[in-house]
Amino acid sequence: MSKRGIISVISIIAVALVVIVALIFIKNGRNTHKFTGELYFFNEMGTSLAAEIHEISYRNDEDLPRLVIAELIKGPEVSGRSRTIENGVELLGIDMTDKSNITVNFSEEYLTGNTTKDILTTYSIVKSLCSIYYVNSIKVVVAGRDIIKPDGEPIGYLTAGDINLATDINTTETREIKLYFTRENYNLLVPEMRSIKVTDQQPIEQYIINELIKGPSEKGKKATLSKDTVLLSVDTEDDICFVNLKSNFLDRNSGNQEKEILAVYSIVDSLTELETISRVQFLIDGKKVDMFGTININSMFGRNADMIGE
Q: Which segments of 31-145 does DSSP mark as H helices, in order?
C-alpha cells in the first residue's frame, strides 16, 4: 500500500473513532440527571454550618449519596468557608437497604478528638444528604460503630428537622392540617385532621403531600397514594400549586378510574384547604403530561367538594 493510501486509512479510522466517542458522550448525556441541593460546610468562623447550593450530575439514584459526600470532601465554593470532612477520611460504604433511611460508614480518621467539631461534621452530612428527595434520615458511623455524644448516648439516625443551627433562620411551629383519604370499597374521600411540626424551610404544601404519602393514622381509613410515591418539588404561584411528582406516580397509583380519581383529588382537596390555593397543576419529572391512567391531568384541577364523603 502506498504512503498516501496508509494516510487515508488512518484518517478514516480517526474519523470513525471521533464519531464513536461522540456517540458515547451523547448516550451518556441522555442518561445524566442534575441534582441541585443545599450542602453544608463550616462558616467563616468555624463555629457553625452554612449552606451552599451545589449542582451535581448523576446517573442513578443509588449513586447520588456518594456523589454528595464527594462534593462535601471537595469543599465549599464560597470564599472563607471550609470543609467539614478532614483530609484522609475514607468513605467505607453506604448502606441503602432502605433508601429513605441510610447509613454512611467512614474510616477512623473521621473522629478528630474534638467532639463539637465531629458532631458538626455529622450534622453537615445529615443535612446535605437530606437534600436528596428520597432521603428521610441518616446515620453516620465510624468503622461500623456508632458515634457517641458527650452524654454517652449514640447519635443514631437524624433527620434534617432534628438539627437546628445557629445560622438557620427557620422557626418551628405546630400546624393543624386536613388531609383526605378513603375507606375500603368506598369511592369518596374522608377527612382526617393531623397536627404536624413544620418549619419555614419547607412550604406547608410539601408537608401536606408527604403526609398523604405516609397514609392515614385513623383506623378504618385507607391511603389514596402509594407509599413509594415521590414528591420532587412543590411551588405555589398566585393561587396555583404546581405539584411535581416522580414518574413512578403514574404507574404506582393507576389501575382503574376510581383509584386514579381518588389519588388526584386527595391531593387537590387537601391542598385547597389552604386559603392560598384554589387550583393544582400536576407535573411529572418537571413536565406536563396528558394521561394518568384514564384521566387527563394536563390541565389544572380545582377543588371537588362532591368527592368528599363523611
A: 64-74, 115-129
Question: What does the alpha-carbon distance between residue 264 and residue 278 come to, in Å, rounded to a whole number?
Answer: 14
pTM confidence score = 0.51
What is the radius of gyration, based on Cα positions, of the chain?
A: 24
49's CB contacts (< 8 A; 6+ apart) are: 40, 41, 42, 43, 84, 120, 123, 124, 127, 165, 167
Dump pLDDT digits (tens) for 165-210: 655 555 567 889 999 999 999 999 999 999 988 766 578 998 899 8
Closest listed residue to residue 215, CA positions, set 232, 238, 192: 192
- CA–CA distance, 231 with 135 (Å, rounded to integer): 12
- Cβ neighbors of 172 (< 8 A, separation 6 or more) are 161, 164, 197, 198, 199
Residue 18 CB contacts under 8 Å (≥ 6 apart), including other chains: none
Q: For residue 27, which amino acid is it?
A: K
Q: Pick from 221, 213, 217, 219: which is nearest to 190 by CA?
A: 221
**C-alpha cell at position 35:** 441534582
Query: Distances from the Cα of 109 to the Cαs of 72, 88, 188, 271, in angstroms?
Result: 16, 7, 57, 47
pLDDT value at 11 more than 80: no
Residue 16: per-residue pLDDT: 60
